[in-house]
Design goal:
By secondary structure, the chain is an alpha/beta fold. Strand 2, helix 4 and strand 3 form a beta-alpha-beta unit. The protein has a domain at 12-135 and 161-187 and 239-247: Rossmann fold (3-Layer(aba) Sandwich). It has helices spanning 12-18, 24-33, 49-54, 68-72, 111-121, 140-153, 162-166, 192-199, 203-212, 217-228, and strands spanning 39-43, 60-65, 80-84, 97-103, 122-133, 177-178, 185-190, 235-247. Helix content is 34%, strand content 22%. The chain is built from ten helices and eight strands. Strands 1, 2, 3, 4, 5, 6, 7 and 8 form an eight-stranded mixed beta sheet that branches.
Length: 256
């Protein structure tokens, strides 16, 4: 039996408020490569950021997460059915899903068990898509401080699975015949406080706070405040997305 690695329940409310949403073009692309637009499964949905993006394109979106706290804080939508369920025990019917998505969470899953479940619930021709994103980007000076904070201030507190994100999902196992994908990025217009609140949802920050009893965000604020200007100033924050897409029944000859 797999053990759920719960890195986000403690900060579920902040996660729902401060995690980036994804561009509409991403979901339009995923719908275009799906064999049908009947039912999509957003696995490890968190607060439902991806599920809400899928909703305009599918008759029904089923959004699951192993964390009760994440589901409680997820944004409601009449086309999205939220359920508390593990990635490898979804409770979905066999051959019922046209598109499976995993947004910024594939690296946390028991991959072998999840992929078995994905194959079990996928309808013929179904597509599976997973993506993650880089550290937030504002401008070169601010970006350098965010990278330093991630690598040095809280670096020791990142779970080992974080390595897949650092390597832009190039090394994560994805045993499906890959589809060619466009490039996408997420964007937000945020104040300094909003950016720092987003960083506060990082699993490494939460773990650092728990282990040391101190808030490492004070260090980040000391670095960013002189570079940002007035704290209420709104600036563009962006994240490059690293996307994997494949046909579930088109198993690749090699693990990617």
């Amino acid at each position: 039996m797999t053990v759920f690695q719960d890195h986000f329940s403690r900060q579920a409310a902040a996660y729902a408020r401060y995690r980036p949403t994804y561009p509409a073009e991403l979901f339009a692309y995923l719908a275009s490569v799906s064999p049908r637009r009947d039912r999509a499964w957003d696995c490890a949905t968190g607060s439902g950021q991806a599920a809400l993006g899928l909703a305009p394109h599918f008759r029904e979106v089923i959004a699951t997460d192993a964390s009760d706290a994440q589901i409680v804080n997820a944004a409601p939508d009449p086309r999205v059915r939220y359920m508390v369920a593990a990635s490898e025990r979804s409770g979905l019917s066999a051959r019922s899903i046209d598109l499976i998505t995993v947004a910024a969470a594939l690296h946390w899953l028991d991959l072998d068990a999840f992929y078995r479940e994905a194959k079990q619930v996928s309808a013929p021709g179904a597509v599976i898509a997973a993506w993650t994103y880089d550290l937030a980007s504002v401008d070169p000076a601010i970006d350098a401080k965010i990278r330093k904070f991630s690598a040095q201030t809280v670096g020791q507190f990142w779970p080992p699975e974080r390595r897949y994100v650092d390597l832009e999902y190039r090394t994560i196992p994805f045993p499906f015949e890959r589809l060619k994908t466009p490039h996408f990025s997420a964007r937000a217009e945020w104040s300094l406080g909003q950016l720092e609140s987003y960083v506060g949802t990082w699993s490494a920050v939460v773990k650092a706070q728990a282990r040391t009893g101190r808030d490492p965000l004070a260090i980040l604020d000391g670095w960013l405040a002189p570079l940002w200007g007035p704290a209420e100033r709104v600036r563009t924050v962006s994240w490059e997305l690293f996307l994997l897409v494949g046909r579930v029944d088109g198993t690749s000859r090699r693990r990617r």
